[in-house]
Amino acid sequence: MTYLVTGGAGFIGGNFVHHMLREHPNDTIICLDALTYAGNLETLEPAAKNPNFRFVKGDITGRPAVDALFAETKPDVVVNFAAESHVDRSIDNPGIFLQTNVIGTQVLMDASRKYGIKRFHQVSTDEVYGDLPLDRPDLLFTETTPIHTSSPYSASKAAADLLAAAYFRTYKLPVTISRCSNNYGPYHFPEKLIPLMIANALNDKPLPVYGKGENVRDWLYVEDHCRAIDLILRNGTAGEVYNIGGHNEMRNIDIVKLILKELGKPETLITYVTDRAGHDLRYAINPGKVHRELGWLPETKFADGIKKTIRWYLDNRGWWENILSGEYQQYYEKMYGGR
Ligand code: NAD
Ligand code: TYD
């Protein structure tokens, strides 16, 4: 089997490439990635010498190049991770989110129709369901929860999901969609909560907590997400949506305090900053369907996963320090300077 994995130089896509090469050594993985600010070839370094792996630099919105790649490589399966993925950046500049997340998905699905594929998998997010109240722990997102987005990011992901469902119904393109909760683990770009807090704590810099830090996310170790997608590709049913989450709800402030404790750093580093516009209160996934139908369960408990993640950032300082020394400096100043 030949897999075209888009966005494989990013956080989850990179972990997925490593997962697939390890678990399915007879399959071929072609990674298509535009290497935006979030893409990093160092993430794919461990795969570089594998003869079953090939990296292609390219933009999923570039129709001629995407077509040519499909014509040349004839993928059996497409897994679309490529996206603009950061809510704060989407508030600052929504246009690129529509371009990559919606148009890019359309271009990939058109090529998938033209050249014929066995499966098109759209990697989506629980953020398409909007948010849940903090005082109703009984409420969880299921696959039938209405789409109700808050940010330009989640709106663009929801639009892509709807388009993917339309391509299934209208053109019979064999589409599956997974909607996962927040991931954490190795190779996570340090503009997102967990790696940003680890990096700042290690550098004795203030830890910027939005609002009161009471917002809740449902955290899943990235390898568990990769295993779920792998299972959906093998045993999932075309036309279906699968929610993925670990029943691990945490308040932001509790995660930040835990990271400080693990690193032996003082809580005085915590700085409360202006809240995110339209900030979603709580995400929580009901993963019953993927468990019942595909036998998936998360394997890594948060207490272990966060320790492993912190250890990875300690052992791979070069990876994130290279990022922090580049254009990221300007981003950080723009987002947090005077906030
Ligand atoms: P990321 O920002 O770390 O990586 C995105 C990758 O896509 C980068 O390598 C980037 O270079 C590439 N890319 C961006 N625009 C591109 C384009 N036009 N053409 C080709 N490549 C392009 O993102 P991530 O956190 O790894 O998320 C991957 C996917 O999973 C996204 O679709 C995201 O919506 C979804 N998701 C993420 C989370 C999470 O917690 N991070 C949770 C649920 C779903
Ligand atoms: P993030 O990692 O951006 O993921 P998402 O917004 O997609 O859930 O943020 C996770 C939570 O952490 C979210 O409630 C916003 C909050 N947050 C902070 O409090 N401070 C920060 O510097 C960042 C990046 C996020």
Distance separating the two termini: 49 Å
Question: What does the oligomeric state look like here?
Answer: single chain
The share of residues in helices is 40-55%
Poorly predicted parts: none
Strand portion: 15-25%
SSE pattern, N- to C-terminal: EHEEHEHHEHEEHEEEHEEHEHHHH
* Mean pLDDT over the residues: 97
- Sheet with most strands: strand arrangement: 3-2-1-4-5-6-11
Shape: globular
Features:
339 residues, alpha/beta, 7-stranded parallel β-sheet, two-stranded parallel ribbon, binds nicotinamide-adenine-dinucleotide, binds thymidine-5'-diphosphate
Describe the structure.
The N and C termini lie far apart (49 Å). This protein has 339 residues and is α/β, with parallel strands linked by helices. The protein has twelve helices and 13 strands. The protein has a seven-stranded parallel beta sheet, with helices on both faces. Helix 2 (63-73) packs parallel to helix 4 and helix 6 runs parallel beside helix 8. The relative contact order is 0.13. The mean pLDDT is 97. The structure holds nicotinamide-adenine-dinucleotide (NAD) and thymidine-5'-diphosphate.
